[in-house]
């Protein structure tokens, strides 16, 4: 309820809840007091199937008391737990607090296991079979949704199993990326490059940097216009890990390959975000996860 900007909805929900409970009590009371008009044999006069007659017997006592117990339980629950608008309940219970306590309990139980690995470097941890099994589970639960179960990524999601790193592939950088997340932003550059024809020329020049098929005439014309991109990608197009600017001189294309894909990128720009995991995972968990990720692209050293 804290997300509402006024008190109307919390009050409205509280009123509806209490009125519903009161209505149940009134219905119970009325059904016990009201008397239908009956014949001398205590039937209401309603007949079905020729001889099936409706009796006017009172509700069974056990049924009535179950109804009363249900209403009492509802009132006690609403007094102890949140359910009436902004009222937090006497026990001050919340699902966020419950979740935090469960997570803290789980982390405390596995802390002795992780303590062994935190004393090791990322490189050494990547050689430990037990640590890698744990790291794989952490990866599947937290990273595979974007990077794939094999960590090879897909369009828009980096391949973590190669040696191409936007922000650097050292253990410290991997830990930093997992902990703090990353925001990659390329602004639309068409206006800085020039005309639509200039953008097409730049696209062909970018293709030429990696030896990809391109129009050599357009590439020659686009070289000077590439200066607008060099602030991030460098004059040689090999990128800048400090900025997260991709290397354009290799054959790895994160957001699509070919002239049209590059033109779209220059024209529209792109924003990518990797969410931070620092509040979700503990430092020991991040350490083991980083060792697993580092080992994917350094298999020869991780063995």
Task: Explain how this protein is built.
By secondary structure, this protein is mainly alpha-helical. The chain folds into three domains: 8-80, no CATH class; 111-181 and 275-302, Orthogonal Bundle (Cytochrome Bc1 Complex, Chain D, domain 2); 185-274, Cytochrome Bc1 Complex, Chain D, domain 2, CATH 1.10.760. The protein is built from 14 helices and four strands. It has helices at residues 8-33, 61-80, 95-118, 122-125, 129-142, 144-147, 171-180, 190-193, 196-209, 216-225, 227-233, 259-268, 283-297, 299-302; strands spanning 43-48, 52-55, 182-186, 270-274. The strands form two sheets. A two-stranded antiparallel sheet has the order 1-2. A two-stranded antiparallel sheet has the order 3-4. The radius of gyration is 34 Å and the shape is elongated.
């Amino acid at each position: 309820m804290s997300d509402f900007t006024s008190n109307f909805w919390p009050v409205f929900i509280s009123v509806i809840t209490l009125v519903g409970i009161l209505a149940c009590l009134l219905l119970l009371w009325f059904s016990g007091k009201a008397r239908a008009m009956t014949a001398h044999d205590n039937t209401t006069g309603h007949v079905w199937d020729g001889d099936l007659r409706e009796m006017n017997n009172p509700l069974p006592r056990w049924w009535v008391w179950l109804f009363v117990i249900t209403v009492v339980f509802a009132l006690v629950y609403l007094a102890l737990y949140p359910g009436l608008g902004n009222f937090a309940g006497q026990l001050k219970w919340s699902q966020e607090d419950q979740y935090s306590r469960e997570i803290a309990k789980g982390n405390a139980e596995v802390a002795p296991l992780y303590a062994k690995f935190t004393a090791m470097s990322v490189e050494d941890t990547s050689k430990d079979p037990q640590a890698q099994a744990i790291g794989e589970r952490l990866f599947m639960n937290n990273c595979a949704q974007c990077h794939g179960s094999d960590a090879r990524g897909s369009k828009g999601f980096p391949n973590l199993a190669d040696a191409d790193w936007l922000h650097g592939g050292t253990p410290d950088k991997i830990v930093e990326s997992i902990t703090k997340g990353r925001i990659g932003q390329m602004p639309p550059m068409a206006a800085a490059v020039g005309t639509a024809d200039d953008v097409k020329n730049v696209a062909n020049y970018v293709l030429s940097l990696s030896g990809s098929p391109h129009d050599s005439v357009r590439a020659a014309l686009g070289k000077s216009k590439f200066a607008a991109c060099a602030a991030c990608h460098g004059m040689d197009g090999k990128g800048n890990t400090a900025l997260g600017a991709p290397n354009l001189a290799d054959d790895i294309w994160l957001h699509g390959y070919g002239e049209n894909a590059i033109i779209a990128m220059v024209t529209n720009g792109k924003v990518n975000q990797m969410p931070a995991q620092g509040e979700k995972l503990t430092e020991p968990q991040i350490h083991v996860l980083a060792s697993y990720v580092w080992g994917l692209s350094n298999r020869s050293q991780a063995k």
